[in-house]
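Incident review: delayed structure delivery

Summary: a single-chain prediction request sat in the queue longer than the usual turnaround. Root cause was a stuck worker, restarted by the on-call engineer. No data loss occurred. The affected request and its eventual output are reproduced below so the record is complete for anyone auditing the incident later.

Affected input:
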Amino acid sequence: MTLEEVRGQETTMEIVDRVQSAGTSLEDLLVAAKKQDYLTVGVYESAKIMNVDPDSVAFCVLATDEEYECDIALQIHFTLIQAFCFDNDINVVRVNDIERLADLVGTDAAGEPKDAHCILVTSPSANPWKDPSLDKLSLFCEERRSMYDWVPTITLPER
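Output delivered after worker restart:
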């Protein structure tokens, strides 16, 4: 094995560790934000918040799902949400487990699972919410952007 191959393996291992750490941080962030009532769940609900009060959005999560890959309307919404996030310096990530996200954000008033395709973590402008997990995810997104991964995919930890 050459030195370059060893360095390549270390880099791959470091990336895997960072992605796993980011998954844990994302889970912690969503749980904490839910307790504080700082989550907006659903594509349309998120679009409303972004339109009315974009400064309150601290983080954006988009769920990818094979079942909805061919849903053109949803993909257009994702593109618009990503563009909005980029224009307003909001970190955005993709998660490939919509069922797990739905479990984390809970159900609506009728007991039905919420539409977890888009989740916003909000923070009131007057009293900004600080969370260590949000800081870790911001750093993760910044690192990934430096490697031209504009919307990194995060894997949530197994239960």
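Verification: Residues 5 and 115 are 43 Å apart (CA to CA).
Action items: add queue-age alerting; document worker restart procedure.
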